[in-house]
Specification:
This protein has 385 residues and is mainly alpha-helical. The chain contains 19 helices and three strands. It folds into two domains: 125 residues, Rossmann fold, CATH 3.40.50; 249 residues, Tetratricopeptide repeat domain (Serine Threonine Protein Phosphatase 5, Tetratricopeptide repeat, Alpha Horseshoe).
Length: 385
């Protein structure tokens, strides 16, 4: 926590950079940022948190900003015993914040396994101090977006558009904007998401990869472009590239599973989705992962299981239209027609334009899986136009 609610996003950014750095070491199982952040600002029992997340070690700390100075403190705890394995603090100018992050990561690795330090200690990203303003905007947008509401998602997207305008050579702004735009197009929780020009978003993703080909978010964005265009093989290739760059990238596993599910590759999809949920069990994206699991089971003809995960999706995130779509189709083909029609009524309240034609235009199933999905939607009573 930062001590200042207005600066909480700054502490989030510091934490996320450290998580990403640790995740690059394949020997570590690192819980993803969204599950870790669910404990933010709370007085927690470390042993209980570790049990809930399925981890042995907990890294906790704080960030304090004052003018152009920053102090970062961190301590590593063995959750099984409660013993403090390591603690330190770092002071510096904001222009040194990335080097401070690298130093913390190196020391944590050293405390956990000294032999890894020499071979696998992280190198500085050598980012220029001028990037800090751009990074600051990206972190603000990130903090807003993961609340997954209409207003805050649109605010995050507007902020990233401004960041791209001001800092056209800053890769994270390009990749995060592309991802957010494409994800909202699929999920339909913002008013502007559906009519997105995918060509423009593809340009953003390609520019991000050109600027920094080692950024896993750039390849996640490229994967979403291919997924949106129903190019499953190309999407899989980019998702796998993102995972090569960050082996503990829960979102990449989850959305790889989604692309595979909508491409009819159910068993492969489930493996990746379940892995994502294991890596980040308290993630706000869990509703999307449950949507993906429902789609995978639906395409495999396991309709009761599809209903189960579809129900979890809509209960977890009431406004997630993508979750309602698969829930309704699953209910219909499971023979629960009255329940399907009741859910469809709720979907129409949120999305009055829903129709078979709309689905065929905007929902990125490939041909065979699309026919099967539309079968369930028709049976539930979704109109053709």
């Amino acid at each position: 926590m930062s001590g200042d609610p207005e600066q909480e996003y700054f502490a989030d950014g510091i934490s996320e950079e450290i998580i990403t750095g640790l995740s690059k070491l394949r020997w570590f199982f690192v819980i993803a940022r969204n599950s870790s952040f669910s404990y933010r600002g709370k007085g927690i029992d470390v042993k209980r948190a570790a049990r809930e997340l399925g981890v042995r070690y907990v890294l906790e700390g704080s960030v304090r900003k004052g003018g152009n100075r920053v102090r970062i403190t961190a301590q590593l705890i063995d959750a099984a015993t409660g013993n403090h394995l390591w603690a330190d603090h770092f002071d510096g100018d904001l222009s040194d914040v990335f080097a401070l992050q690298d130093e913390i990561t190196r020391k944590v690795v050293s405390a956990i396994e000294p032999r890894l330090l020499e071979a696998e200690s992280l190198r500085s990203q050598h980012r220029s101090p001028k990037d800090i303003d751009a990074w600051d905007m990206v972190m603000r947008a990130n903090a807003l977006f993961w609340r997954l509401t209409n207003t805050e998602s649109e605010a995050a997207i507007a902020m990233l558009k401004r960041a791209v305008e001001l800092y056209p050579d800053y890769a994270p702004a390009q990749s995060m904007l592309a991802f957010m735009l494409l994800m909202t197009r699929f999920a339909v929780w913002t008013s502007s998401g559906v009519e997105l020009d995918v060509k423009e978003t593809a340009t953003l993703a390609a520019r991000a990869a050109q600027l920094d080909d080692s950024d896993p978010w750039a390849h996640l964005a490229l994967a979403w472009v291919a997924f949106t265009r129903r190019q499953t093989d190309a999407a899989v290739e980019e998702f796998r590239r993102a995972l090569e760059l960050n082996p503990n990238f829960a979102a990449a596993h989850g959305y790889l599973g989604l692309a595979l599910a909508l491409g009819g590759r159910s068993d492969e999809a489930i493996d990746h989705i379940e892995h994502a949920m294991r890596m980040s069990p308290r993630d706000p994206q869990i509703s999307m992962f449950n949507t993906a699991l429902a789609a995978a089971h639906y395409q495999a003809g396991r309709y009761p299981e599809a209903v189960q995960f579809g129900r979890r999706s809509v209960h977890t995130r009431e406004g997630l239209i993508a979750g309602y779509r698969i829930y309704i189709a699953s209910l219909a083909l499971a023979g629960q027609i009255e329940e399907a029609r009741a859910a469809l009524q709720r979907l129409r309240e949120m999305h009055p334009d829903i129709s078979i034609a709309w689905i065929e235009k905007y929902v990125p199933y490939t041909a065979g899986p699309m026919a099967k999905f539309v079968e369930g939607m028709r049976k539930a009573g979704v109109p053709e136009q």
